[in-house]
């Protein structure tokens, strides 16, 4: 683009140079002027089109919001105004002085002076020509009686006396009779026949003519008559050069006057031509000025656009944009400062990125540690609002972490649910203790009743203030401790109680045999009844001790792939389905579970026995046994009855030994079921139904290598 503009400007300058050069000569000016005007018009149109196109392109850039486009337009307008005002002033003054000058050229005094000069030169030449005519007539009289023999001598004498350069005598037919000349190298000037005929008719010929190789000469031809009546009429020719100074001045005055007359005729046209030439010059000059102003404006705005691109790149986070510095002015210093600032920002960004990376690594490490902690961790701000919760905390509480983050402890959950009570209790403890505190609370989650061990503390003062709440689900630990305690109780019962029972029973039986025949019938009957009572109670105590001993000595489960549906069908075949109102809902294509058939058979028997006891005396008993595959790849076994359900005061103690509602029961059934289920890495849950009755839910893991389905 810049090359094209440079070529157009060079052509415009050359055109103006040709126009100025052609104006020096009128002939060259008149010959080349139309061509120059046409070329100038085409060039002006090209410059105008170029300028309009660049302005249109600049307008598009302004609409797109390109940085520096408005500045380029403003600089272009400023340069244009600076160039246009002086240009129009000079143009107006030039037109005015041109018209005045042309009018001055054609002043009356100049015209009269040129005319007088022409007349003066003509009069001087006429005087010389008239003098030469008189000499010719005198010579013709002298030569009228000259013979041929003395004619040459007479001509020479006459030429020397009259100081004429050349004399020639012609006969009637135009032949040269004699010729004398002061310059021997010159040939006689031969007149035309018409001139000779005119002279013989007594009309002398006198002219001032331009002769090749001689210049301006006076040419006079007169007749020469002889004295004899029958003699021929001869013709005498005189050729005398006009003095060189006079000839040069006369020609100069004559040429100037002629050109003056020619120009005077076209005076109005000359004004118009010069006006058009001046207008064309002004147009080309202004267009070139605007084009150059655009180029300069664009060049001045280029560093600012480059700087703007770099600024936008920095704003987007790209610090690789380093504009090159090509000048040492203020813009160059500004770009150098920008590059230095960009490098500093890049270094600072890299440092921040490194610090951020280290922080993220530390945060990721801490998050991994918190995520893999079995303890729930809740970080609170100074107002007891939850900031961070790990997955273990959400899992223990049985809620989504989104329901905890950003909420106050006292605003967790609904007013009556366990989560709200948990948050209120923790907030109360934080309000009561300034330092560390620890407390064990109960929490009823989605699955079962849990026992949580809470520990809270205030964060050390520093960048941010807040609290940390850590809690663990110690339900299994407490259950394990309770089971261990009951196992120890059962072991001690077997050791401390069962051993004395046999001697007691034997002693009672021996007393009955020894004293039975010695007593009266009434006393003997009383002794027999008492002895039987002792034996029966000892047997009952032995059964109870055996049950506790069996609970304490429960064998380890031998886990293997087990078809749960087949086991359920096998166990339920021993019960009266009609009497119990038994309904089976066994899932199809149920995968094998990991289990011990003997222990799980005991679990099913215990559940069926409990359900049977709960349905005793019911008008329309119903017992539902259901198996199905859950989404978490576990198999669920559910036993549901429509009996009286479990007492609410025992819901938290149902899996403890001796927790029973039966008059004769030991309360070990559900405790044994829970222990067996836990041996199988499963879960058990008991609930009372709102419609009446109770449901026991057992979940068992699916066998990993199970390939067959029932």
| Rg, alpha carbons | 71 Å
* DSSP strand count: 17
Query: Roughly what is the average pLDDT, rounded to an integer?
Result: 76
**Number of H/I helices:** 17
Structural class comes to: alpha+beta
Can you tell me the residue ranges where pLDDT is under 50 for at least 5 consecutive residues?
25-29, 706-710
Strand order of the largest sheet: 2-1-5-4-3
What would you call the shape? Answer: rod-shaped
**Main beta-sheet annotation:** 5 strands, antiparallel
Cα end-to-end separation? 85 Å
Amount of helix: 55-70%
Could you tell me the strand content as a percent range? 15-25%
Write up this protein.
- With 710 residues, this protein is α+β, with helices and mostly antiparallel strands.
- It is 57% helix and 16% strand.
- The protein contains 17 helices and 17 strands.
- The strands form four sheets. It has a five-stranded antiparallel beta sheet, with helices on both faces. A five-stranded antiparallel beta sheet has the order 7-6-10-9-8. Strands 12-14-15-17-16 form a five-stranded mixed beta sheet.
- Helix 1 runs antiparallel to helix 8 (267-315), helix 2 packs antiparallel against helix 3 and helix 8 packs parallel to helix 9 (330-372).
- The longest helix is centred in the middle third of the chain and has 49 residues, at 267-315.
- It is rod-shaped and about 240 Å long.
Topology (elements, then pairings):
Blueprint: H1 2-22, H2 26-63, H3 69-105, H4 108-142, H5 151-162, E1 166-170, E2 176-181, H6 193-200, E3 205-211, E4 215-224, E5 234-241, H7 244-265, H8 267-315, H9 330-372, E6 376-381, E7 386-389, H10 391-397, H11 418-432, E8 437-444, E9 449-458, E10 466-473, H12 475-515, H13 521-552, E11 560-562, H14 564-572, H15 577-580, E12 582-586, E13 593-595, H16 597-614, E14 623-629, E15 634-641, H17 669-679, E16 683-688, E17 694-701
Parallel strand pairs: 12-14
Antiparallel strand pairs: 1-2, 1-5, 3-4, 4-5, 6-7, 6-10, 8-9, 9-10, 11-13, 14-15, 15-17, 16-17
Helix pairs in contact: 1-2, 1-8, 2-3, 2-8, 3-8, 4-7, 8-9, 12-13, 14-16, 16-17
């Amino acid at each position: 683009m810049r090359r094209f503009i440079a070529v157009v400007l060079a052509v415009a300058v050359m055109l103006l140079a040709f126009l100025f050069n052609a104006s020096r000569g009128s002939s060259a000016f008149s010959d080349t002027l139309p061509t120059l005007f046409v070329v100038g018009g085409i060039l002006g149109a090209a410059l105008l089109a170029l300028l309009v196109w660049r302005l249109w392109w600049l307008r598009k850039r302004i609409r797109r919001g390109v940085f520096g486009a408005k500045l380029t337009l403003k600089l272009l307008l400023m340069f244009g105004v600076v160039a246009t005002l002086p240009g129009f002033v000079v143009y107006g003054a030039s037109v005015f002085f041109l018209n005045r000058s042309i009018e001055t050229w054609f002043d009356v005094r100049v015209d009269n002076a040129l005319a007088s000069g022409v007349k003066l030169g003509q009069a001087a030449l006429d005087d010389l020509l008239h003098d030469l005519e008189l000499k010719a007539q005198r010579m013709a009289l002298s030569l009228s009686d000259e013979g041929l023999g003395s004619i040459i001598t007479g001509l020479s004498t006459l030429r020397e006396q009259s100081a004429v350069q050349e004399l020639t005598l012609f006969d009637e037919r135009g032949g040269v009779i004699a010729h004398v000349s002061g310059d021997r190298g010159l040939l006689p000037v031969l007149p035309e026949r018409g001139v000779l005929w005119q002279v013989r008719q007594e009309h002398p010929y006198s002219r001032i003519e331009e002769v090749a190789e001689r210049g301006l000469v006076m040419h006079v031809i007169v007749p020469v008559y002889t004295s004899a009546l029958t003699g021929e009429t001869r013709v005498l020719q005189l050729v005398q050069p006009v003095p060189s100074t006079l000839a040069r001045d006369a020609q100069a005055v004559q040429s100037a006057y002629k050109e003056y007359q020619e120009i005077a005729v076209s005076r109005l046209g000359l004004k118009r031509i010069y006006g058009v030439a001046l207008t064309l010059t002004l147009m080309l000059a202004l267009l070139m000025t605007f084009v150059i102003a655009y180029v300069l404006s664009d060049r001045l705005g280029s560093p600012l656009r480059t700087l703007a691109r770099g600024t936008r790149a920095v704003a987007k986070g790209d610090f690789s944009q380093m504009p090159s510095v090509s000048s040492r002015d203020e813009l160059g210093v500004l770009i150098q400062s920008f590059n230095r600032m960009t490098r500093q920002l890049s270094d600072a960004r890299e440092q921040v990125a490194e610090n951020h990376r280290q922080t993220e690594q530390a945060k990721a490490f801490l998050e991994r540690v918190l995520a893999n902690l079995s303890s729930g961790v809740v970080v609170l701000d100074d107002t007891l609002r939850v900031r961070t919760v790990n997955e273990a905390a959400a899992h223990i509480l049985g809620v989504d972490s989104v329901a905890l983050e950003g909420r106050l402890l006292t605003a967790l959950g609904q007013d009556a649910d366990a989560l709200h009570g948990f948050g209120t209790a923790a907030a109360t403890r934080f309000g009561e203790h300034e330092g560390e505190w620890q407390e064990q609370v109960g929490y009823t989650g989605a699955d079962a009743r849990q026992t949580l061990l809470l520990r809270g503390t205030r964060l050390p003062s520093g960048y941010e203030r807040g609290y940390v709440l850590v809690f663990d689900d110690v339900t299994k630990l407490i259950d394990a401790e309770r089971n261990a305690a009951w196992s120890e109780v059962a072991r001690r019962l077997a050791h401390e109680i069962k051993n004395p029972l046999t001697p007691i029973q034997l002693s009672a039986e021996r007393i009955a045999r020894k004293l039975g025949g010695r007593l009266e019938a009434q006393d003997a009957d009383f002794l027999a009844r008492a002895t039987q009572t002792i034996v029966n109670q000892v047997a009952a105590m032995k059964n109870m001790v055996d049950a506790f001993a069996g609970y304490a000595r429960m064998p380890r489960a031998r886990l293997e792939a087990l078809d749960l549906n087949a086991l359920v069908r096998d166990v339920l075949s021993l019960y009266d389905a009609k009497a119990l109102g038994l309904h089976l809902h066994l899932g199809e294509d149920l995968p094998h579970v990991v289990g011990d058939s003997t222990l799980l058979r005991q679990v099913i028997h215990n559940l069926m026995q409990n359900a049977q006891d709960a349905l005793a005396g019911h008008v329309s008993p119903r017992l539902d046994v259901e198996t199905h595959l859950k989404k978490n790849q576990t198999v669920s076994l559910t036993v549901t009855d429509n009996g009286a359900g479990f007492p609410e005061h025992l819901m938290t103690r149902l899996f403890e030994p001796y927790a029973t509602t039966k008059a004769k029961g030991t309360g070990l059934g559900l405790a044994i079921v829970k222990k067996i289920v836990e041996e199988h890495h499963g879960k058990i849950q008991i609930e009372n139904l709102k419609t009446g009755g109770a449901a026991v839910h057992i979940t068992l893991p699916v066998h990993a290598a199970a390939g067959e389905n029932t």
